Amino acid sequence: MRTAYQDQLEDLTNQLGAMCELAGAAMERATQALLQADLVLAEQVISDQDVLGEHSARTEEAAFVLLALQAPVARDLRSVVSAIQMVADIDRMGALAVHVAKIARRRHPVHALPEEVNGYFSEMGRVAVELGRTAQEVLLTGDIDKAARIRAEDDAMDDLHRHLFNVLMDREWKHGVASAVDVALLSRFYERFADHAVEIGRRVIFMATGELPEYEELPPETWRD
Amino acid sequence: MRTAYQDQLEDLTNQLGAMCELAGAAMERATQALLQADLVLAEQVISDQDVLGEHSARTEEAAFVLLALQAPVARDLRSVVSAIQMVADIDRMGALAVHVAKIARRRHPVHALPEEVNGYFSEMGRVAVELGRTAQEVLLTGDIDKAARIRAEDDAMDDLHRHLFNVLMDREWKHGVASAVDVALLSRFYERFADHAVEIGRRVIFMATGELPEYEELPPETWRD
């Protein structure tokens, strides 16, 4: 019985890991769809959302059954409760990838992005995918040091977001209002994606230690090139 | 013992209700700060976020203790798990109010909104506050019919959001890029606030019935003036 229970707990973690992978892959494709005005890829991200939705429902259900039948305590209870919370975060990461894909689709065959900001979004996409990968890794390994370092990657995303807003706001933006609105919303979607990855890191720390660190307690970004 | 347990469950619901009230009040004040470029009010919304944060931590902790010590099943278990999920939604509603207040503060003493769109935001603020109130009510009463009808109010918010984007995108927008970006983000903050209220309604239905309805299964907005 204990073995089945431990298996169930491990399954829960693996399901969350698989969800992270799907969310990261969705953001990777959405970014490519955005940068290349690729309609087929955008449609794929949008239709794949159901797959992540099914995973969410299944994972939530599994957590619920564990609570009902096994009444876990201490660290196991923290794992199951955290799993329920992380499902919401990962689900949202997938939804944000879909938002990106929908903007790419809406503007197709035109590129949603003026070429001037392609570099920002290429980098935001790269950081987002990296964050998804790190979130998956810390989920599966329970590595709390690496979980805490997710904040540094999020800080890099925030920097990109801020710089992009300076481009929109302070310089002479030549691409019109519609394009500025798209860029602002897109930038926000990437920034939120990163925030959810940080949340996953915080929850992994909570699972291991019983303490949920404040964002400010995590190590910030150090100097980068 | 059972009585203490029932009291704890009821306390949990009351705490969520109190959180909804705080989030609604925050959005009410944030809207006023936005429409009237009221810096004092904006600052108040921003500093009050800690109060909601403390409530969140306390409510999550109470739910955790209930799970650990009482190992609830069936409907009670659904209530506790839903409480944990709703804490995240209500917390986010408060964060969105803070985002609105921060834009009001950043633009002060200038009004963040061109007068042309004041009416939209006044109405979005009204609907948001109403949604916060309805969410609180269905939480406390468990009225699942009313919970389902939250979607109709959310549809009204989506309409406002869409119309506002038409104003930004299709007509000749005369207020510049910075202002358009502010308006787009603000509109999104209100729309997301409403989405979280719908989530609370869905969770209340889940608590009562064990079935989590899809958004599309909820009754849509009927014809309005």
TrEMBL record, chains A, B:
Q: Which SUPFAM superfamilies match?
A: PhoU-like (SSF109755)
Q: Which residues form the PhoU domain?
A: 18-103, 122-204
- Which InterPro entries does this entry report, sorted A to Z? PhoU, PhoU-like_sf, PhoU_dom
Please verify whether the record's keywords include Membrane.
no
Q: What processes does the entry annotate via GO biological process terms? A: intracellular phosphate ion homeostasis; negative regulation of phosphate metabolic process; phosphate ion transport
Q: What does this protein do?
A: Plays a role in the regulation of phosphate uptake.
Can you name this protein?
Phosphate-specific transport system accessory protein PhoU
UniProt source species: Mycolicibacterium chitae (Mycobacterium chitae)
